[in-house]
Design goal:
This protein is of the alpha+beta class. The chain has helices at 27-40, 44-47, 55-67, 115-129, 144-152; strands at 17-21, 72-77, 80-89, 99-106, 134-140, 156-167, 170-180. The protein binds coenzyme A.
């Protein structure tokens, strides 16, 4: 698979958003964006049962992804980290080595300003360029923003998981959204 180098990706400055590869120093901001969304989605009782990720865990994970040549991107506006996106292997078993699952998060003060729209194509293009063939996201069925964003970038609903989450006293469903990368399953992988 092609290698992904560390550094700037290019000039994606619309609305002042710059997309680049993450650095260790970005991890604090990434964690705080993640916590904003997780806290919003959980009641107090559920939150008390959760071991939230620590900065060192995230730094280790970031390094590990770099080692596996997986994109780990941040979106910056005037030096402020306003979002991030990354992809990890879908499953460890070797048959699934061309498949990734991904996450994308935007700072709550910068929602619906086009940050996700800038991050997503970079993530997709880098994953495709690295030789992966499918990318998969798991999205809460009520998360209309994320579902629309994924649809806008060619993802389709590939599955529906009923009652797998528990938030605010209710069971929640998840949608599996999938998109092919490069030739997808139309050709054999070259490496
Ligand atoms: C999903 C998320 C990443 C979208 O990022 P964003 O920067 O707000 O999205 P953008 O402003 O780039 O919008 C891109 C498209 O997404 C959709 N979208 C974004 N916010 C939306 C909203 N509040 N309602 C409906 N659609 C929305 C629209 O299709 C939009 O296109 P449009 O501007 O032409 O209408 C962001 O809402 C987020 O971080 N949510 C919390 C974390 C999360 O759910 N992550 C995804 C889990 S897989």
């Amino acid at each position: 698979m092609a290698l992904i180098e560390n550094g700037d990706i290019g000039n994606h400055q619309s609305f002042g958003v710059k997309i680049r590869f993450s650095k260790d120093e970005d991890v604090d901001s990434m964690l705080s964006i993640y916590m904003q969304h997780i806290r919003r989605g959980l009641d107090h009782d559920s939150a008390s049962h959760i071991d939230f990720p620590q900065i060192d865990d995230l730094k280790r994970r970031r390094k590990n992804m770099q080692k596996h040549r997986l994109p780990h991107l941040v979106a910056e506006i005037s030096k402020t980290i306003v979002g991030y996106a990354y992809a990890v292997p879908f499953r460890k078993r070797p048959a699934y080595r061309y498949v990734l699952k991904h996450s994308i998060y935007v700072h709550q003060d910068y929602l619906h300003m086009g940050v996700g729209r800038q991050l997503m194509p970079e993530l997709i293009n880098l994953c495709a360029a690295a030789g992966y063939r499918q990318i998969i996201g798991y999205i809460d069925s009520t998360n209309h923003a994320s579902i629309s964003l994924h649809e806008a970038f060619g993802f389709h609903q590939a599955g529906y998981l009923k009652g797998i989450g528990y938030k605010y006293g209710n069971w929640t469903d998840s949608i599996i959204m999938q998109r092919s990368l490069g030739m997808g399953d139309k050709s054999s992988p070259s490496n």
